[in-house]
Amino acid sequence: MRRACLLTLLLVLAPLGQAMAATLEQDFPTVGTFHWGPFRVRPFFLLRATGYDSNVFLEDGTASADFTSSPELGIRLFTLFRDRGVIQVEEILDYVWYAHNDELSHFNNAFQARTAYYMKRGLVFAELRALSLRERPSTEIDYRIRRRERMFGAGWRFVWPKSSLQFRLGRDNFDYEPGVEAGQGIPVALNRLEKVITITGSKRILPKTDFLMEWEGRRIDFDTEPIDPNEDDDSSSRRFSVGFIFDPSAFIKGSLKVGVMRLEPDNRADEGYDGPVGDAVLVYRFTGQTSLEMRGQRQALFTTAVNNVYLLDQGYGATLTQAVSARVAAEIGIDREKVSFPNETTTCVLVDEDQLECETGFRTDRIRAFFAGAYFRLSNLSRIGMRVGQWERDSTFEFLNRHRLTVQMIYSYNF
User: In the chain, how long is the greatest CA-to-CA distance?
Assistant: First the structure.
């Protein structure tokens, strides 16, 4: 199956003939940037999630409310070398502040770097991404824990007039810190190294639509070696996907990708995953004033749940945006998500300082979210907005049921 997918990808998307070079202008646009010595620079400022949260700890029963704010500074800069080479760096730093719960206040940092060299038949590239975040890593985990991700990739891309073929090798490292006593098992279950090879091909089938085919193989090695060999979660996975990419200037813009994935644990006694996966974000413009964003995803993720290697995360949602005037727009949205675990598991929560509440069975979480908001464009460079949202989780383990209400102000400025 794997060889057949690779052969199909190469035959369909690698036409004969002389390749046309990709251009720096397409991959590194200068619109919105200014000169700073040899660099093209674009800084920005964002004040997000400023407002009220009715349940900052996602507690059951009596919840802790707080006022919070997250100012964020960022800068993107790149420099060109004789229309052939480029180096780009992006740094984003934000501070999450809580008015009453000082122990939750923290910094987040995201750094990205990319370099590329353009040739007659395409380009070679290397990229680095380093994150340090203290946020909830998934809907499964209610604790804000510090996680660090270091992702390095390198490869080459061949480009023809209406198609391209890219090969990428990657090395991704995931490191978690528990932060709270109840989260001590998180690093053991999730700290890992993933080695990745990805082959991606695209072909222009309509003036503003590209057809996409992609094959990916991963080798996953967890940091902690279990005492019992039957508890080893080291795994391998393979994924084959097809999809479409729509140009931003089209009436439908965004991307759609669906495929099949096989996750195989080294321990054959563990249950792996073999089934459909995919993700999509599509925006349809009814008119110049009305647009509808549709999104969906289905993925198998590693889990901390006992007796399970993975969880299945499925979700969909939509946002309707209506321009009220030249500067004012309103939005309303809804999201639905289902998180299910294939095997029986035991989940515990700390109800008192020295008392745990546990339940054993098949766990399924259903998450619902609603939001509505409005935005005012102050200028071409800045805007301000407000969003009210409600989030709730309904679980087969009833002591995990949660709900929260948020009211947020958002302000952004691009220099």
Answer: 71
